[in-house]
Design goal:
This protein is mainly alpha-helical. The chain has helices at residues 2-21, 61-70, 118-123, 137-143, 155-169, 188-204, 208-211, 239-249, 271-280, 282-287; strands at 51-53, 87-89, 107-110, 125-127, 147-152, 232-235. The chain has one domain (25-287). 36% of the residues lie in helices and 8% in strands. Helix 6 runs parallel beside helix 9 (271-280). The protein is globular, with a radius of gyration of 20 Å. It starts with a helix and ends in a 5-residue tail after the last helix.
């Protein structure tokens, strides 16, 4: 009787809760790694190695991919080598909003369900360049052939950026209530509504919205925290300087990112909503050394 009760607890209570809260994140072991890398310590041996970009959504990834493409480098969305064990055409199509066809074909990685089931696949798929490496062992091998870099960002600002982008760019468009704006003084109620809806979905499916809300740490470390996928961690807040130093270290001196001001959506975040987001992105705050 006690044995059966134990099986029920593991199978029906603990495991679903663990999966919903974080499929990839037993990262309490991450103290084995240094999360802050000084780009200046990169030595000259890097100048003859290849470099791949791990695209963490909402951290200037498309900007970096565009700059690389201008110089003949196929990073991120244009890296056709990025494939997964369960891999194929995205359920929403290869040229759908917000990813119109532009010299690349959009393909997706599928997690947990048969990709032939359209409804389930839509809930558990991410563009191949958005998929966290730790989600698929085959994808890890595609990144392992070169050195890698990625960009991290303050978790709250990243969430706000996704919220802003969701209402401006995602399809289908979401109508705004009367007298409510996406940003500014009248945005707090809309932001709170978006946060509550996102948290409810995230607990069931951390790959929601094309992995735009996936934890950043899942792009950097393996689930058991024994491997580091992203060799060079750059910071959104100091991106131009760190990116240009990295390009110089790999002999890509012609590739430069100019300093620019990113348009920010200013939102008044109620204290209880901020607390919810701190809990959602606790591991990102802790291991990426962003202050609360």
């Amino acid at each position: 009787m006690i044995f059966c009760a134990g099986i029920f607890f593991v199978a029906c209570i603990w495991w679903p809760f663990a999966v919903r809260m974080s499929i990839l994140s037993p990262l309490f072991l991450i103290e084995h790694f240094d999360t802050q890398e000084d780009v200046n310590t990169i030595n000259s041996t890097h100048r003859h190695r290849c470099l791949k970009f791990i695209h963490i959504p909402k951290t200037a990834g498309q900007t970096i991919e565009g700059i690389g493409f201008q110089h003949g480098l196929k990073w991120g969305m244009r890296d056709e080598s990025l494939t997964c064990k369960e891999f194929g055409a995205c359920s929403s199509g290869p040229c759908s909003i917000p990813y119109p066809c532009d010299n690349f074909n959009r393909t997706c990685c599928f997690f947990g369900f048969d990709k032939t089931n359209t409804f389930l696949a839509r809930k558990n798929e991410c563009s191949s360049w958005h998929a966290p490496p730790g989600a698929d062992a085959f994808l890890v091998s595609q990144y392992a052939s070169c050195d890698t870099f990625c960009v991290v960002r303050d978790p709250l600002m990243r969430f706000i950026s996704q919220y802003h982008w969701r209402y401006l760019n995602w399809f289908p468009k979401v109508p705004l209530p009367p007298n409510v704006s996406i940003c500014g003084n009248t945005s707090s109620s809309l932001f709170e509504q978006y946060t509550n809806e996102t948290l409810a979905q995230f607990r069931l499916n951390p790959w929601m919205f094309d992995c735009h809300h996936a934890l950043q740490v899942d792009y950097i470390w393996s689930p058991d925290a024994k491997k580091k996928y992203c060799d060079h961690i750059l910071h959104f807040e100091n991106l131009s300087e760190e990116f240009n130093e990295l390009m110089h270290a790999y002999n890509f001196d012609s590739i430069r990112l100019n300093s620019s001001r990113h348009s920010e959506c200013k939102v008044s975040v109620p204290p209880h909503v901020r607390k919810q987001l701190l809990e959602m992105y606790y591991l990102d705050y802790k291991w990426l050394n962003y202050s609360h």
